[in-house]
Amino acid sequence: MAHVNPGARGAIVWQFNQAGAFAFAACSAGIWGPKWSAG
Fold first, then answer.
1. What is the CA radius of gyration of the chain?
2. Which residue in 24, 18, 28 sits closest to 36, CA to CA?
3. Which domain of life is it from (predicted)?
4. Do 31 and 25 meet the contact criterion of CB atoms below 8 Å apart?
5. In the chain, which end has fewer C-beta atoms inside a 10 angstrom radius, N or C?
6. Alpha-carbon separation of residue 10 from 5, 17, 31, 32 (angstroms)
7. Are 37 and 24 in contact (CB under 8 A)?
8. Strands (DSSP E) along the chain, which ranges?
9. What is the structure's pLDDT at 26?
10. How confident is the model at residue 39 (pLDDT cuts 50, 70, 90)?
11. Please, are residues 36 and 22 in contact by the beta-carbon 8 Å criterion?
12. Buried b (16+ CB within 10 A) or exposed e, 3-25
């Protein structure tokens, strides 16, 4: 799990070891990321 202090900025780099579709979401009320396809 990644954390960023309030008011700060950060970056997340995702590295996958296989191709596929991955669901993800932001942990904020009412926000859901669309399914993301890697390759």
1. 12
2. 24
3. Bacteria
4. yes
5. N
6. 9, 23, 18, 19
7. no
8. 20-22, 36-38
9. 65
10. very low
11. yes
12. eeeeeeeeeeeeeeeeeeeeeee
Question: For residue 12, what pLDDT is reported?
Answer: 81
Nearest Cα residue to 23 out of 7, 34, 14, 39: 34
- One-letter amino acid at 34 equals P
Location of structure tokens 């780099």: 13
Q: What is the pLDDT of residues 1-37, one digit of tens each?
A: 778 888 888 888 888 899 988 877 666 655 555 554 4
